[in-house]
Amino acid sequence: MGILSGYTVLDCSIAMAGPFAAQRLGDLGADVIKVEPLSGEWQRHAPAGGITGNRINVSFLSLNRNKRSLAIDLKSPGGQRVMRKLVEKADVFIQNYRAGVAGRLGVDYDTLSAINPRLIYVSMTGYGEDGPHAQRPGQDLLLQAMSGAMMSTGRAGEPPQAAGQYLVDAVTAYTAFEGALAALLHRERTGEGQKVEVNMLDAITTLQMQELSVFTVGHKPQDRSAEPHAHVYIRAPYGTFATTDGYIALAMPNFPGLAAALDAPALAGLDETAAGWHDRDATFALVRDAIAPFSSAEVLARLDAQGIWAGPVYGYADLVADPQIAHNGTFIEYDHPTEGHVKTPGFPIRFSRTPSQLRRGAPLTGEHTDEILRAAGFSDDDLAGLAAEGAIGRGQA
């Protein structure tokens, strides 16, 4: 039994951030009911990488394990009646609609908390529920760009580069997950439910706690170098360097040790402050040329012998095959009834007494509608009537 066994989560979110947060709650044992429109949640129809799957694309598959699917039309009177009934006994409600949409659907905090004052209501938005940007699209790349993070890496004069992950979505998901857990703890102590507001702009901004403090307190601007230095607020050499057969990453070495490792005596006498901060381009180029004649394995061995922080640059194939990944059990594998054998990242937190576990793979749209509503007190006649009026979907693909 997981830590959150016995708690019920209504997941009315779409895309990545909301479903990822809800999945983490499900991984800890909560009964997560994914509330979808009759046609299925948006992510079912927008596969990353074009990988569509058999009946469930990989994007949806990866973000919706340990959930049951309930397909209802929240715009219909019957669908709203179903939702109000479920809210009566729910513990957490998650939505990431644009500002104003929850109110129009009758699932805003004031409405639902009046039904269930103990409810933890998690509202996720792009920029905040109100304010000058409230109606802007909360999309990962747009928030990466707005956050300032792109201007801390890369070459001066070249276009900023986005992270290679859906970074803002992921950190927002974890922020919402953290907020839901904290609110549940407060409720256990006091009996009080509450609203938890999370927005993508604040999530990615506060993630840069150190960098932004260097700017706001230390007044140091983001000055990118001509060489591809990996971060404006760390001294050179810092970044990735080509070898004869690939790339390595090098982080903040001492110059005497680096000189010995690379047979580059010119590095030994460099002043850390002058060369590392004020002459980053020349330092970067000097190290780049010294590393270039070696293979990745050879240069990493040399650097390791000097106690210098360095490591390989992996692609996904390398990561999946790494022995530490295997040792940690980072990936889980299971057989899905429609998608076949699945290998996917698993559970990043390990509990000695209540481990996370896979209870079910991602559901088909409305796969559990009848099961969920019967448990909520709806009769077979009720279900037939709701289906006839188009308020619910029952086990659609």
What does this structure look like?
The chain is α/β, with parallel strands linked by helices. It has helices spanning 17-27, 58-63, 77-87, 101-105, 109-115, 140-146, 167-190, 200-207, 209-216, 255-262, 272-278, 280-291, 296-305, 316-321, 323-328, 369-375, 380-388, and strands at residues 8-11, 31-36, 67-72, 92-95, 120-125, 194-199, 238-242, 247-251, 310-312, 331-336, 340-345, 392-393. It has 2 domains: 8-207 and 361-393, Crotonobetainyl-coa:carnitine coa-transferase, domain 1 (Rossmann fold, 3-Layer(aba) Sandwich), CATH 3.40.50.10540; 238-242 and 247-312. It has 17 helices and 12 strands. A 7-stranded mixed β-sheet has the order 6-5-4-1-2-3-12, with helices on both faces. The protein has a 3-stranded antiparallel β-sheet with strand order 7-8-9, with helices on one face. A two-stranded antiparallel sheet has the order 10-11. Helix 2 (58-63) links the parallel strand 2 and strand 3. The chain starts with 7 loop residues before the first strand and ends with a strand. The model has no long low-confidence stretch (mean pLDDT 96).
Write the layout of secondary structure elements.
Elements: E1 8-11, H1 17-27, E2 31-36, H2 58-63, E3 67-72, H3 77-87, E4 92-95, H4 101-105, H5 109-115, E5 120-125, H6 140-146, H7 167-190, E6 194-199, H8 200-207, H9 209-216, E7 238-242, E8 247-251, H10 255-262, H11 272-278, H12 280-291, H13 296-305, E9 310-312, H14 316-321, H15 323-328, E10 331-336, E11 340-345, H16 369-375, H17 380-388, E12 392-393
Parallel strand pairs: 1-2, 1-4, 2-3, 4-5, 5-6
Antiparallel strand pairs: 3-12, 7-8, 8-9, 10-11
Helix pairs in contact: 1-7, 7-8, 10-13
